Structure formats: structure tokens, C-alpha cells
Amino acid sequence: xRAEDTPLIRLEDYRPSDWLIDTVDLDISLAPQQTRVRAxxxxxxxxxxxxxxxxxxxxxxxxxxxIKLDGAPLDASAFTAGPQSLTxxxxxxxxxxxxxxxVLDPSANTKLMGLYRSSKVYCTQCEADGFRRITYFLDRxxxxxxxxxxLEAAKTEAxxxxxxxxxxxxxxxxxxxxxxxxxHDPHPKPAYLFALVGGALxxxxxxxxxxxxxxxxxxxxxxxxxxxxxxxxxxxxxxxMRWDERVFGRNYDLDVFNVVAVSDFNMGAMExxxxxxxxxxxxxADPQTATDGDYASIEAIIAHxxxxxxxxxxxxxxxxxxxxLKEGLTVFRDQEFSADERSRPVKRISDVRxxxxxxxxxxxxxxxxxxxxxxYKEINNFYTPTVYExxxxxxxxxxxxxxxxxxxxxxxxxxxxxxxxxxxxxxxLACFAETSGKDLSHFARWYEQAGTPTIVASGRxxxxxxxxxxxxxxxxxxxxxxxxxxxxxxxxxxxLVGKGGDLPxxxxxxxxxxxxxxxxxxxxxxxxxxxxxxxxxxxxxxxxSAPVRLELDLSDADLLxxxxxxxxxxxxxxxxxxxxxxxxxxxxxxxxxxxxxxxxSAPIAAALEAFLSGQxxxxxxxxxxxxxxxxxxxxxxxxxxxxxxxAIHAAHRTLATELGFAxxxxxxxxxTKFDASARYSPDAASAGRRALRNEAxxxxxVADIQSGPALAEDQFDMANNLTDRLAALSAITLTTxxxxxxxxxxxxxxxxxxxxxxxxxxxxxALIAEPGTLDRVKRLMQHKAFSLSNPxxxxxxxxxxxxxxxxxxxxxxxxxxxxxxMVIALDRTNPQVASRLLGSFKSWRMLxxxxxxxxxxxxxxxxxxxxxxxxxxxxAERALA
Length: 881
Ligand code: B3K
Ligand code: ZN
Hints:
Bound molecules: (3S)-3,7-diaminoheptanoic acid, zinc ion
Number of helices: 27
Oligomer: single chain
């Protein structure tokens, strides 16, 4: 496949389907190499479609074995069947049934789309277009059907048989070693939400009664022997179900809710109706094999998939352009859940870190696209940080702009009005326009325009008039295919910070919405605050009220005052990050050098010293965020062009070393205070203490005070959980020498039978910032812990390497060449994993000329390969455009 040969699908070309499928009866007889699928489809013409149109069903690598219309075999001239489609040329102009039989080979399905086998477990992945790999179908989200599914398999091979909905029958197949189960899902759904699972699985379960009194059986299924690690997922499920009842008024709607963990999965998890299928990385947890970060991710992803039951499943998308309708909204919902379960400010900080690292970088490069794309060649390439994370930011802004009350009523209206439908962004926004009485057409630009807006802000205090004037201006940079940009609606939450805290805000400006909120919806505006009794320091974008870059002309001294005095935790954190970013940018620009970083580190160290001896221990999770410096990627983005990753890395190390050195007594004190042998509990407060200690360990290791490796080794020995052991491993990878290699070996021995833990081990090594890493990664590909066919292993080792700022971006181009070769190798078996990996090149245009040319050459090499998948061809084409 070459990208030029692939049709571009456009939003403006949307037409309703000519046919509808009201019912689907599936009879699936599972066998490893020969699974038989019989589909009985209840079809009728769509009143909104073209009368008399042929019936064209989607397929993907399918083999038809039989077809009947209303029970009678169809004449060969009446249809055309190929691997990619099935056409019935002149179907009756009324309702009729079609029976279609296909035969599949789940064992040979390495794309992990459609029906496949993962460690002997049959499972499916149908979003976005995997159902067409199971049977011919109208595989589009606006065709919604009621499914009844009979599954049959050998009893020993697949004692557990699951599908969507409620189980309505089970039994034995007489005279055979086989059994069956019948599942019925009363809720009409698009094909992408179909799922089945068959295998030998253990489970944990719990009864649940919904707020409206319905009894639900919850269960989490895992590989045999792993039930002891399923408890946290089940516990998270119960908590998020209660939360959705309380906060969004949403109750569950079936008798069962099943979660299944499988070990080969292209992404995190999938929200199939009543049968969520998960990457086992996001289900399995115990203190020895999961980190605090894993516990938090499991909680968030269990919630995300569960929340889709309403935002995604009961109300689905009309077409794939509306993907953010379910994804952005559901990310917003899971972020809110985690914020309520944990620390709200810390959750916000970590979400913003992710947003900047993943979405801002996407928005700044050739793969930039609007939250609602207007055209695509391969939809699976649009499950992006822009659709998900920026999509969630848009919802968050909407809530700020119209207020919590109108937002709540808007959500209620949306649930009521759109339930059971395949909806659009327009229908969604109409609900909020109605409940708020506001015109949201200008706000809707957030869905249409790519690129991260920049706000340039400056303030002037007039001591005589006791007034403070704030000038704000916005611009959005050009992005591929969108050269001119309109101003967007930007909620700017702010405060004016005086010596004794926030000053009262008085202004007659119409842009001031009250409650510390300015709405910037034009290219620029000025707001004059009166009765300002002293020269304030502006604290802008509190809580990160809009997903933008902020250029604010404040001195380091003013920023450091905000760090100690701002009433908004997010901006306290941001203030210190901003000062650190300046230092790193100064050092990261090749020509300036490291002395500058050293000089600039002194005031940062002083501020941190005061912080660590004062408030830090009161909120360790927040303090850990404060101690963590902006990443190399953050600095690269800030520099924006002619980027030299080695210079950035050197600046980063210099700053960390200076801080580690200057803060040694305080950092050592943290190591003793929050000692690694404390009893493990995954709760947020305990996790916060570990996070703080481990940030301290990182700084000490970089600075190599007395002996960084020895500190890491001590912690490794003392630790009683994976979080602390992995932190010790990460810390020692910041050092060089024998001790590092020894600890790497000990870690591998300790966790030899734990693939998910060894993924972290692979990744920690792939991230080592030294030239030997590429050879190490190649060596590790031969290790028994690695496999090119398992997406988690690939993401850990190869994906980890592609995220290694200095080594992926080696000046000799060998990093690019290696990743490009891997993309090509992976594309033969799993195009989705390959195209994700190719996305690592997304920031190539901002590199200095030598690396830029080398990266481009590797991308072009990929693009030229014959026989590329549509997934990889699409990314290569857009990255090079
Ligand atoms: N909806 C799925 C993602 C499907 C990805 C298809 N390539 C998981 C989620 O967002 O919840
Ligand atoms: Zn989702």
C-alpha cells in the first residue's frame, strides 16, 4: 500500500447508510485455526438512505463460505464477494435476512484486530474497524444492532465463554467434548463494541447493587494463577461505578459487567459493552509486580472504560470524525474521578505534564490535526493525544466557561436526548448552549483548529491611579493544511498576588466574567483592574485553565515569589517549572553553555531549600512534582528549532547535579524520613511519600553525592515493593560503572518470571543516555524476556529507545535507522504497533540540520518500502509532507 493510493475519507462526505441492520445473530464455533462464524443479519432499507441502493458490506481479509437471503442460497450472479467486501447487487426493497458464513484463523491473526488468540485465549478487538475481519458487515458506528451470540468451543480449551450483555443459556454439545454459551445484549450497539472471549481463565467477582436497585455481578478474568492480582482492578471498578452514579447520575444497565485481561493487546483497553477487554498491564497489580504509577493507571483506565458505557456506548459516534465526542469526554470523566479519589492539584499537574509531553509536541509537528479531524486515510492513526487529551481539555474549558451548574444540566440533557443514538459534536454542544443560554459557535473552533495557541501577557501597575492593566494577546500557529487561524475562546483564570496573598479583583471590563476569570475571545484585549493597593504579581492560567502556551514577562524573582506565595497549587508548581525551564533553555541552546545553567541554579536551589525545610513534608505528592524538573522534551519544545538534544541533556544534567549537590542534606533527610521499608499500601498518600523519596534519590544519584550507586543499592535491598525497587533501578541508570550493571542483573534475576516487570527493566535500559544504549537495545532484543510479537515488549524496549532524547536522536543517525528498520519489520505482522512507533519521528522538523536530514532520510526510507500497511504509509506520508 502506498499512501497516495489510499482514498481520503472526508467529514463533509458523510452520508447515512443506505441499509440498517437491526439484529445480529452470531453463531461462532471457536477453534485455533478454523473458527466458523455464521452471522444472521436482520436488514432493512434506511429511510434516510438511497432507495434501491445495492448492499455493500465491509470485509477485511475475509473468506466467504456460504450466503443465504431469507434462508435461500443466493445465486452466484446476485452477489460479489472478495476479501475486502461483499456486495448484494439488487437486494429486495424491504426488510430481509442475510446469512453469511466465514471461516477464520485466529492463531494466524498477528494484527490483533478482529478475532485472535493471545496466550491461548480467544479474544477480539473491533474498534475501529476490526469487526469486518470477523464477518461481512456495515462496519460503521451509526449502524446499531441488537446482538445475540452463541459461542461454542472445546470444554478443556475454553471453559470460559464470554460475550456482550447477559448470559441467557449454556449447555453441552451432545456427543462431543464441546460446550456453548449464549449471550444477549439488549442495547443496540455499533459493531466496534462487539466482543468475545474464550479460554481457561480465573476470576474474582463481587456483587453490586446500582443506585436504582439493580443487581449486577462484577467479575475480573485473568490468566490462571493470577487472580491474586485482580483485586485492585475490581476495587477500582466498584469505586468508579459509585462515583458515576453520584457525580454524573449514571447507573449501570446490564446484569453482568466483565473485565478480561489479555497479554497481547494493541493499546490499553477496550470498552466493549459489558465486556471490557484489557491489556493485562492495566489490570494486574500487587505490591511486588506493580508500581504506584501502575495502581493509579489501572484505577484510571478501569474507570475510563467503564465510563464509556454511557459516553461512547449508549451514546456513540455518528462517524469516526466524532471520535473526541466519546474519547475527550471520557478522558475528562476519568480525570475527574482520579482527582476526587486522589489529590486534585497533583492529578492536574500530572495530566498537564502528559498533555504537554504528548499533545503539545504532536500539535507542534507535522502530525498536528484538529480535535475533530476533517479527513483521514487510516482512522486507527487518529487515536491521538489531540483527540483524547486536548479533547478532554476542551470539555474542561467548557465547564469553566459556562459554570458547573449549566455544565451539569447540559450533561443531563445530553444523556437524555442522545441516549441510544450515534451523535455528533454539534448535538453535544447544542445541549450546553441550551442550558447555559450561551452561543457556543465561537467555542466550537476548538474542534476545528489544530495547533497550540500562545497567549502573550504583560502587566503594568500604575501606583498613582492604583490600577493594574493586563494586556493579553493570542495567536495560533499555522499547522499542516491550516495556515490562517482564528482567535479561540480562552478562559484565563487568574489572581493578582500581593504581599499578603490574593488582592481583590475589581474591574468594569466586559471580558471579566467574575470569580477570577477573564474570557479572551479576540486577538487581544486589555483589562484594567482598579483599587489595586500594591504592585501585584499576576498569576495567570490558574489550574491550567486553557491548553495553551503562556508567554509572560515576569522576572525569575517574581516567579519564585509565586512559587512560595500563590494560592493556586498548580501555579506554584508552574512557577518553579518556568524558572527551571528558562535555565534549561539557556543551557540547551548550544551557543550559550553550561555556566549559565550553574548560575541560574542557585536561586532555584535556594527556593527549593526553603520549600523542603518547610511545607514539603505536609504534601509529599505535590513536593515530588515540584522536585521533578521539566523533561528534555519540554525543553526541546520550548527551544522549538535548531534543537540539539545533546546540549539539552547536558543542561539537564548540570541543573540536576547542581540541585542535588546544593540540597544534599535535605534530600538525604527525605530518604530517612520516608524510609523504603515502611509497610506498603497503594493509597495516594503512601504513594506520595514514596514519590517524594524517589525524586530525592534521583537528584542524589545524578549528583553522585558520595555514591549515587550505593544509595540506589541500599534502597533496592531495603525495598519491599516494586515502586521502590524500580526507582532504585532508574536511579542507578543515571550513573555509570559496575554497580549499575550488577543491579540490572539482580533485577532481572529477581523478576525472571514476570514479563510485565521485565518490560520496565527493558525500558529503564532503553532510556540510558549514553552511546552504548543502541547496542544494548539490540542485545536485549535477543533476551528471552523480549518478543517482537508482543506489543508491550515492543513498546517497552523499542518504544523506550525511541523516547530516549539523546540516543534516538544520535548525531550519526543510527538511532533513526534502527527505529525505522523496526517499523518495517513490525509492519509485516502488526501495522498498528508499527505506525505508533513511527510516530516517534513526529518532532523531527525542529532538530538541528544534521539530525533533521538524517531523520528525514530514515522516514523517507520507510515511505519508499513496497507493501507498507495503510497505517504506516499514512504516518510516513504526513510526517514528511
Ligand atoms: N476505544 C479504545 C481505543 C480503540 C483504539 C482503536 N485503534 C480504548 C479507549 O479509548 O477507551
Ligand atoms: Zn476511551
